[in-house]
Amino acid sequence: MELENYRAPAKVKLAALWASTMFCYIYGDYFGLYVAGTLAAMNHGSMGPLGHATAGVLIGVSLLMAVPSLMVALSLLLPASVCRWACIVLGLFYTAIMAVSLPGSEPFYKVLAAIEMTLTLTITVVAARWPREARRG
Questions:
Q1: Among 102, 109, 120, residue whose Cα is nearest residue 28
Q2: Distance from the Cα of residue 36 to its chain's centroid
Q3: How far apart are CA 15 and CA 20, in angstroms?
Q4: What is the number of other CB atoms lying within 10 angstroms of the CB of residue 57?
Q5: Whole-angstrom Cα distance, residue 8 to residue 80?
Q6: Bridge-partner residues for 52, per DSSP?
Q7: 10-35 pLDDT per residue, tens
Q8: DSSP assignment string, 103-131
Q9: Which pLDDT belongs to residue 119?
Q10: What is the pLDDT of residues 113-130, one digit of tens each?
Q11: Do 10 and 127 touch, CB atoms closer than 8 A?
């Protein structure tokens, strides 16, 4: 007897991919706290390559991380055409952000970044290959 093979709709696949991406982002930031000197720099208001933790920088980073978080739900809630284009554009955007952050980063971060870029590129591919409905009549 064969196991049932569930074929998830594009929206469910995208929501799962965005959720996985967010877990990697969160763990990367968490593990980064263990890098020597990180907490001391944070206590002095430094956000590494982003510079001093001003209100503007904190708002910018908050918005940057809020978007993929929201895409978990929006992948299920948006109309298909809007979701498709949002995932294509945002998938490429977040892949580029990770690629730019790679030089000079810690080895663990490079591993997570590679996984994150694979996830965001997969988001782009799943969205680009969104199945079409068969025409009736």
A1: 109
A2: 26
A3: 9
A4: 14
A5: 15
A6: 46
A7: 999 999 999 999 999 999 999 999 99
A8: TT--HHHHHHHHHHHHHHHHHHHHHHTPP
A9: 98
A10: 999 999 999 999 999 999
A11: yes
- Paired tokens of 73: 């739900």
Within 8 A by CB and 6+ apart from 119, the residues are 17, 20, 21, 24
Per-residue pLDDT tens for 69-100?
Answer: 999 999 999 999 999 999 999 999 999 999 99
Instruction: State the CB neighbour count (10 A cutoff) for residue 31.
Output: 13
CA angle in degrees (0–180, nearest 5) for 53-58-62 = 150
Radius of gyration of the CA atoms of the chain, in A = 18
What is the pTM for the complete model shown?
0.90
pLDDT recorded at residue 137 = 61
Residue whose token pair is 């929006």: 74
Q: 46 forms bridges with which residues in the sheet?
A: 52
Q: Do the Cβ atoms of 68 and 94 come closer than 8 Å?
A: yes
What are the strands, taking DSSP E only, across 46-92? none
Amino acid letter, 10: A
Q: CA torsion sign, 119 to 124 to 128 to 134? A: positive
